[in-house]
Amino acid sequence: MKIFLSYILPYKFKITLQMIIKFAGTIFDLLIPWILSYIIDSVVAGGNKKGVYFWGFLMLICSAGALTFNIIANRMAARTSCDITEKIRHDLFAKIMSLSCRETDEFTQPSLISRLTSDTYFFYQMLLRMQRLGIRAPILLIGGCIVTLMLDAKLALVLISLLPVLAVIVLFISRKGIALYTKVQQAADILVRAIREFMSGIRVILALSTKKYETERFKKANELAAKAEQKAGYVMAVSNPTMSFLMNIGLILVIGAGAYLVNKGDTQAGKIIAFMTYFTIILNAMMSITRIFVMLSKGTASGGRIAQVLQSEDEIKYIIEQEKEQDDAFSHIEFRNVSFSYKGVTNALSGISFKIEKGETLGIIGATGSGKSTLLMLLLRFYDANSGEILIDGINIKSIEKEKLYKKFATVFQNDILFSDSIGDNIKFGRSAKPGDMMKAAKAAQASFIYEKDGQFGHKLDIGGRNLSGGQRQRIAIARALIKEPEILLLDDVSSALDYRTDSRLRRALEKNYVKTTKIIVSQRASAVMNCDNILVLDNGEIKGEGTHDELLSSCFLYREIYEIQMGGAAI
């Protein structure tokens, strides 16, 4: 939890000032019962009417001071907690954005969503409670004990003797609570995953009439979360009743002992009344401390989960390599005997070697699971290869800074995401672009349907572009990639949602308008890659054939089989 000190320390002045104000307000609260006791035992007993008005006015001032100072301190605590949590959430989001694909797989997306939302909220609640009650409750507790000792030491010892027992109970429960609330958040991750999968696949669920199955799956996740919350709640629920029971036992003892002492003349009635008030203050302080420990258990568990992400080491390491000037002697992209496995068991790619010259178009074809998309992931350095080298302009990509590397690429995935914004903003995607640039990119992407929409580029899209067809969404994603005039264009099976005519026009537009751009087209369609300068045929992570369309028809059985089946040749 030391990592959070860097977020808290910049606010040390504000927190210190808030603590001073809170301390002053709490002292005013502690003075009120003492003044009441003095009025009853000394002022009223002496028949001093003016003294009653004077001390009564002081009580009023103390009440107003306690109210004002506590409100100011609470407002400051809320603001400080919000600011600290805002920065933590910002840095957590930035860290999640920088995680490698392997790290994201390890944490899981639902867990990262929970850490960014509910965990930061619980951490905020802990900060707020610690500033509001973490100062006030101990001062009321300690101050109440000190004042009662000053009023009557014998009666005060009855109260103070209970405090060690209460402290042991609070510490025991809070230690149990941290472990239990960690399990609660883990169960919440599973629930978020179930909801996320349901929402993203709702059309498939409705189409296949599997609502009953999905309801049952959600029910199990919901029950798991509920049971974890129940178990934690049962343990934490022990604290308040136990505190109340012990403190009320103490109150009975104080009343009995006080009545006996008053009857003997060893104490005064005003002191007993003050004692009762201070006892109530001490009881409320103990209850507040209990609530603090409940929230501390939640906040500590959530803080630990947040810290796991913030402290995760960036596994994308950079090798130091002497900078080389761009030279035509180097191929634009080169894979040298690259192998990769997702979990170190079975290779998704084995011994991949090929070269692409600048401005050329490489086609990659193969069955589902042959490693086509994995190859692109390695080129983008979403994952690091287990062995071999990947070079751009003769430079190992491991020596290129992440942002500098990504600027070389424009990528379109098969299931690209569109945002709930205008078509134009989805194409620009936060980048500065002139209307002419958008029109050029849209034209090359064969997205002429834009001009048929109300508002054209200003037409608003639903979440995920649900008010567009699959092919229209795909073409907007292609336009988004083309608008940056990329050095390297990666198209991952983008023809799957396009008809053959549109796909053909798209490829011709790319060849005509993006001559200097090196293009890699991944597809399961032979028609999408047959005109490429070079074609790789992948199967089970290995290159089974490489060459032009004509060369592969004569030399690669797998390619010829794909071509003949898809293009209406002889059945195999």
Describe the structure.
The chain has 572 residues and is α/β, with parallel strands linked by helices. The protein folds into 2 domains: 2-310, ABC transporter type 1, transmembrane domain (ABC transporter transmembrane region fold), CATH 1.20.1560.10; 333-566, Rossmann fold, CATH 3.40.50. 63% of the residues lie in helices and 10% in strands. It is built from 20 helices and 10 strands. The longest helix is centred in the N-terminal third of the chain and has 50 residues, at 49-98.
Shape, please? elongated
Q: Would you identify the regions where 5 or more consecutive residues have pLDDT less than 50?
A: none
* Annotated CATH topology of the largest domain: ABC transporter transmembrane region fold
- Please, what is the average pLDDT? 80
Instruction: List the secondary-structure elements in sequence, H or E.
Output: HHHHHHHHHHHEEEHEEHEHHHEHEHEEHH
How is the biggest beta sheet arranged?
6 strands, mixed
User: What share of residues is helical?
Assistant: 55-70%
CATH class of the largest domain: Mainly Alpha
CATH superfamily of the largest domain: ABC transporter type 1, transmembrane domain
Major sheet: order of its strands?
A: 6-7-8-3-9-10
Query: How many domains would you count in the coordinates?
Result: 2
Number of helices: 20
Structural class: alpha/beta
| Percent of residues in β-strands | 5-15%
In total, the number of strands is 10
Question: Whole-number radius of gyration?
Answer: 35 Å
The CATH architecture category of the largest domain equals Up-down Bundle
**Ends apart, CA distance between termini:** 64 Å
